[in-house]
Amino acid sequence: MKRLLAVGACYLDTILDVDYYPAEDEKLRASSILKRRGGNCPNTLEILQQLLDTDAGIPTISLALLAVLPSRSSPAYQEISASFNASTDLANCICRPDVNEPASSYIVRSRQVDSRTIINYNGLPEMTTAEFASVADKLGKNMGWCHFEGRIPDVTLQSMQHLRQCFPLVKVSVEVEKPGREGLQDLATLADVVFYSKSWARGNGYESSEECLRAQATLVSKASLLLCTWGDAGVGALELPSLTYRKCPAFKTAGTDTVDTVGAGDTFIAGMLFGLICRGDWDLDRKLRFGNELAGRKVVQEGLRGLGSLMQHAL
Q: CA of 173: how far to CAs of 61, 183, 188, 194, 269, in Å?
């Protein structure tokens, strides 16, 4: 059984809904509070597992997370572990025995301007290259695909280099998201598939997904597919080496309003990875439509629950 290993941070999120953003030193009562497990790769794995459970006819793959977590004896670890489907393997996660607090996000959502502000805290020592290499060597040839959240670029770059040198047949994808994070460009040069965010693209001077992807195509050497999400404008995709550009409009459900955009990008990545790994019978246009619809359905509901079953008609 081939395995998808997702490498990234795992958070416990606290989400507060407010009528408006408070001014400095102002007190404001939130209208609701929600606590849930978050993190880019954990979100992507949760949705992938839903899709695998929904589509029984696809080739079997297993899902595994590599994240730094607090002590296994801590309540936070128990909460994180309980949030995953039993089919998602957490055995490769790195637990810090002397740390009981998880990485945490505090997300304030304003109804007035329909936006969010995120404050993170992470007191966990980050994964080292040696720790990643130990996991990769243990999984060996059973690892068919490795997806990286683009964080801690120096360690991620060395980890990707380890895969390229020791396991050249493993497919590698990476998310290039944060515009102010140095080193993400180097990660893109080692990946087979690159997911660029609109914020990263605009932060680097690009005004459209096509402009971003065509410029990036001159900087990457190994990639076969580049993707760039652009919010309401949909997503662009560039196949390499043909330089064939495709655009898929955003999916919108008539009569619905945006409810929760947290995790929308993770949802799109899950849909694309599902198509790329599990549905070789789909062409790229169908994979893009699937990922776009999945993300479009996510933003009109709270959280991630039930998204897989909502996509059964498209499988």
A: 17, 16, 8, 6, 10
Name the pairing type of β-strands 2-7 and 171-176. Answer: unpaired
Q: What are 33's two structure tokens? A: 């509070």
Closest CA to 164 of 196, 192, 129, 128: 192
Q: What is the pLDDT of residues 79-137, one digit of tens each?
A: 999 999 888 999 999 999 999 999 999 999 998 887 889 999 999 999 999 999 999 99
pLDDT digits (tens, 9 = 90+) for 30-61: 999 999 999 999 999 999 999 999 886 676 78
What's the chain's Rg over C-alpha atoms? 19
CA 185 vs CA 5, 95, 156: distances in Å: 22, 29, 12
pTM metric for this prediction:
0.94
Token readout for 23 is: 């001014």
